[in-house]
Please model this.
Amino acid sequence: MAAFLGNLRNVVIAGFVLAALLFGLYFYTQGYDGPTFELFLMRWLHVGSGVMWIGLLWYFNFVSTPTTPKIPEELRPALGRYITPAALWWFRWSAMATIVFGIALAWRNNYLVEAYTLDFSQGMAGWPLVPKYLGIGIGMWLATIMWFNVWFVIWPNQQKALNIGGKYPDLTPPEKAAAGKTAGMFSRINTLLSIPMLFSMVAAGHLY
Ligand code: HEM
Model:
């Protein structure tokens, strides 16, 4: 058992096998409805990658950032050299998977344009025509801004601050500190936005 649990790949495969059993249960009790299941699958992958993304964002903000100053100076390099770069890999790619599945979901729900235009796509008269499109549209914009911050502000600045991949060997300590500060500020902005964003995401399916 310890050997099995010690291997992350096997554990993840086992998780998907259990989920496949649940699919079997659904199929057995409800019958198979292709389009419904395909939409559900997209939603499941969307929420799964979103949990990975926001989980890491909250790990950075609730655990890593407040704890780092308490770590003895000589132990801190381990964080910047090993743990944070690995976390940033999963962070930015789960953000990418979330937006891809999210856009696919909105497309599949036939409201991609309506949502991204905050339900103004039919003009101003009687706005909002479909309140759900406005509600999910706000969530999609918040999450899209967050995705932009991850890829175009946090990641490039963390690369500079931690010299990830050896791309910035010549930066001075003040330049590295400034890059780290910018990354941290935008990470905080994303933590702020994550709360209303998640409200909009869940409300779209259950409040409207
Ligand atoms: C730009 C990125 C994103 C886009 C375009 C997007 C888009 C969507 C869409 C279209 C839905 C379906 C709403 C419906 O009609 O039921 C949805 C649902 C949802 N999203 Fe996102 N989303 C994004 C980011 C996120 C993030 C970061 C999370 C964090 C976990 C998240 C969590 C959820 C949840 C929990 C649902 C509700 C699923 C349900 O109750 O059926 N989304 N999203």
